[in-house]
Amino acid sequence: MRDFTLFIPEYIAAGAAIGVLALELALPRLRRDALAWATAAGAAAWLIAALFYVGDAPGDFEGLLRTDAFTAYFRILAAGAVLAVALLSARYLRDRTRAAGEYYGLLLMAGAGMTLLSAARELLTAYVALELLSFSLYVLVGYLKRDARSNEASLKYILLGAFSSAMLLYGISLLYGLTGSTTYAGVAEGLAARGEGTDLAALAAIMLIVAGVGFKVSAAPFHMWAPDAYQGAPLPVTAFLATASKAAGFALILRLFTEALAVDALEWRAAIAALAAITMTAGNLLAIQQTNLKRLLAYSSIGQAGYMLVAVAAIGYGDAAAAQNASSALLLHIAGYTLSTMALFAALVAHYNRTGDESIEGLRGLSATQPFLALVISASLFSFAGLPFFAGFATKLLLFQAGTGAGLLWLAGLGAANSFISLYYYLMVMRRMYLFDPPEGQTRIRPPALLGAMAGLLLLGVVFIGVYPGPVFEATDGAAAALFEASAAAFARLP
Amino acid sequence: MVPLENYLVLSAILFALGVYGVLSRRNAVLVLMSVELMLNAVSLNFVAFAAHLDPDRATGIVFAVFVIAVAAAEVGLALAIVIRLFRNRSSANVDEAATLRW
Amino acid sequence: MAEHAWILAAVPAIAFLALAALGRRLPRQGDFLAVLAAASGFGLFFAVLASFLGRGEGAWPVLNAIEWTAIGDFRLNMGIAVDQITIVMLAVVTTVAFMVNVFSVGYMKGEPRYWWYFAVLQLFVASMLLLVLADNLLLLYVAWELVGLSSFLLIGHYWERRSAVEAAKKAFITTRVGDVGLLIGIILLWKATGTFNILDIIHAVEAGEVGGTGLFVSVMFIFLGAMGKSAQLPFHVWLPDAMEGPTPVSALIHAATMVVAGVYLVARLLPVFEAAGDALLVVTAVGLITALFSGVVAFAQTDIKKVLAYSTVSQLGFMFVALGAGVVSAGMFHLFTHAFFKALLFLGAGSVILGAHHRQEVGQLGGLWRRMPVTAAAFLVGSLALAGLFPLAGFWSKDEILHAVEGHRGALVFALISLASIMTAFYTTRLFILTFLGKPRDAEAGHARETGASMTGPLVFLAVLSVFAGFVVYGGVGEALGFPGGFGEFVYLHHPETFHIDWGLAGVSTALFVIGVFGAGWLYRGGRLDRAAALTAWQPKLYEMTRRKFYFDDLYQFLIDRVVLGFSYVVSWFDRFAVNDTGVDGSATLTGYAGFLLKHLQTGRVPNYALAIAAGVAALILVALAAGG
């Protein structure tokens, strides 16, 4: 069935990407801000188009792609992330580079890739979408051509990314060999029906795939690219990496592990649980030692990935209902995490635009010079730590509850302990802002209008999810239900 | 027909060589070559499986073609970044590009 | 509209946020915003009332809830429940809040942090409205705490004064003790019934699903909370000190609304109290003791506001006595009328204080009726209502209480509550005479001037209410206003009670009034203190004890200084060495060291990273082999 209308939002995104590139070529003397606005407009159009598809019956494209509530969720997330990052980049880029058309074009492409990744039901499609996302990000990370650190970051990212995607492919090829199919449904069937003596092969295939996707979501020990990439990349790109790229990784994991690999849950669930444990611990322990803000946030988001992996492990350990619950909790956590991160970065970009300082020390006395930004940063950090009234509390609660629902009490306990540890380095940042005096001669400054408004809006979202998670939870529940509907047949074969 | 195992062993060896290359090479271009090697091993896998197990639909072959294309794009991108690095530091040594650490 | 009654709470909440964020920069520091919010609340109340009455009795209570969260099997709904008791409370809160806001514009002119005062005032109103609208105990508890917070902030408004800071602390801590009890009680009830929803709890109790000692214990804990908030013995100590706050605050919070939260809670849960053994007996006892005690203490107070404070404590005791007799309509009715005339008295006191240039001690006042006639007249109306003169509002509500006690509690209680009524009349008359009659005892009082319209306006309005509000007890009046009948037919526990005036009881009531008023009139005639001084000299020790409020405050201070602080030294030693140095610092150092060691793995070199990935794959395979299939 070739229903091309299913992906009109993505056409808009891609069209906007090309449009922005063309715009820059055609009107080279255009204010570089204008490109940001054009991108934002494109992303907004994409977002609005995506909203039209919410509530539609699931659509299928040749068995390769599927548009359902799950896809709609990630579409909205991607469009929103691109919109936010485009707005964040406006002044940032204007101050630092001359050419910006490719940046915005690639941003939109990355978002489109993310959506396709969440819609993919077949390994090749998924791979191509993944690479679309990754390639765009490789370039975006290294966009500041003259900045040595930006270079180094993108070099590490692409080398390691290529390495891990080769691993992923090798795993996929083994899977293909085992099952004779590359569609998720076909793989599930094949795995269920595989003969004796193929256990090791299946295991190797799955673990290679885990390594590949683990790299994407920065799970330990595949996380080592992340701190360097986050630190070297331009600030808005770091925001995109931290939110969209991670979310995309989890979209892939969710689709893949609930549909294709669910039958072999016994093989991978212990490994995923171990992965979750190591990731959250490593992320949090390493974050404590950091003095650079971007690096700290990288480790913090590694920790968050660890928490999210708990839900994935729960999918492996629990029964169908528990798995769906876990997916729903994961999606909610992604939403809350994205909002908090974007709010945080909005404030950070505003701060960086003014001072050019990336260190934690540079945030000294922010509560006196820019109290609103300090407030936004504190609220986001509190949300990461999982304090009540902020999104992180409700979402982490549901995440760990999903974990215990699947019998992973130790993991949930470890998660709680880690949240506790994480409070240290978040408070460390806040301490700098509130308890220290600002550097000499700095007086109170008003926050920039656009970034301030964005930050405020996102903060409201964070508080909203924290105080009244009901409506958003319903939405993610719907997405999770759609996810499992697609894989219902496969799951029925679970041992 | 050459037995399937032969192909698989060959591709495994190639893959392992590629991994070794990535781990031990200092020059970024050589690392990329090693990655290419790994990707070729993967293509070999796909083609072998397709020929033996799935001759009608040949999904694997299609996959292999895609892999080649994507690999080419990847390398192009990576080389561009390496050139950037070279222009900045006059060296393509991955060991030296280690200012971001800890 | 009735199901959207939450808007009544939302309006002042928004006003609070606006004033807190922008108040400083608005013209006139935003007081018009506050008055507007209060006025709209007042107006909206009538909309809610009309909607409520329009639905007819069958539709009561009006419910409206949303599902807040559902975690597994635990479902928590948040919403509002509007029933007859709620309507009475809404009437009281919105009316008095409106009057207080208007009054404050004049009274607080020129005071520091003018905008913040109005902001917190709105926060208070929002929380109080939320409290009476809440349909479940959890939401009620949140609102309860918010109300306590607003009270704390307002008592301590003049924080430059040490005494104000101390008073705010005292209020907060004393009510906190009660609040702990409330929380325990709520949790116990939840464990017994499985729900926080008030109506569901009442149904469960009435159906006999819960009972026995367990229920009695839960109910007693909840009553602890009510005792704290409503300043019943032995938690009464905070209320007189709370007079450190601005006088309009005393009128709103410490007379008409917050302190009656405890009464409201008990009234709301009265069916549960009824089913819990002797709970109602305890309520009656506490109320009675409090009423008598504070009445006596009020005799010896010389600060206008303190007299009124003790009077409030005493009247709250009256309300609890009525509730303890099982007659919810009597208790709520007295709450209703008391709100108006007590607010009137407090605002009148404020008017006096301002007019006499910040004089609060009766020793410095006197003879004000000539110089502040409007205030004096209003104050007179309020005093007479409080003392219970027929046919002012206070007469009817006190009569109802006497009726309830006579019918349900027996002769002893009746006698004691009558004694308390005499005392009420006595100290009220004393206050009026000493403040307004006779000759001014101080130069400033001699130059007192009547206060402006923004202050006298509310006084007049409340005076009118104090005169006429009592008539709603009659069925005819109630029906004319749209209610199903008189007060007793609107608010009732098991069956509506039509009001028929019992002339015998009315006579007794009036007799009590006469004894009290004329007693005080004789003692203080013409505003002269000589006879009173003679009385004091006759029994100096007794007088001193009364004036020192029977040493309750001193006792508490002693307990805190010796017992509590002493114990805390021991605990703090343990905390410092065992918990902090070893546990906390120790584990922190350990964690930090672990991180320090780990971070050196991140060498910055790509080959190392790649090795980690490759090794990771191998490790994963090993782990999977070891653990699973």
Number of helices of chain B: 3
How much is the radius of gyration of chain B in Å? 17 Å
Indicate the CATH topology of chain B. Answer: Helix Hairpins
Largest sheet of chain C: 2 strands, antiparallel
Query: Can you tell me the CATH class of chain B?
Result: Mainly Alpha
Q: Rough shape of chain C?
A: globular
Order of helices and strands of chain C: HHEEHHHHHHHHHHHHHHHHHHHHHHHHHH
Which two chains share the most extensive interface? Answer: A-C, 50 and 37 residues
Q: Which overall shape of chain B is indicated by the principal axes computed on the Cα atoms? A: elongated
The helix-strand sequence of chain B is HHH
Overall helicity of chain C: over 70%
Say how many strands of chain C there are: 2
Cα Rg of chain C: 28 Å
Helix/strand structural class of chain B: mainly alpha
Instruction: Give a quick account of the main beta sheet of chain B: strands, pairing sense, barrel closure.
Output: none
Please provide the count of β strands of chain B: 0
Helix content of chain B: over 70%
Order of strands across the widest beta sheet of chain C?
A: 1-2
CATH architecture tag of chain B: Orthogonal Bundle
| Alpha-beta content class of chain C | mainly alpha
Distance between the termini of chain B: 52 Å
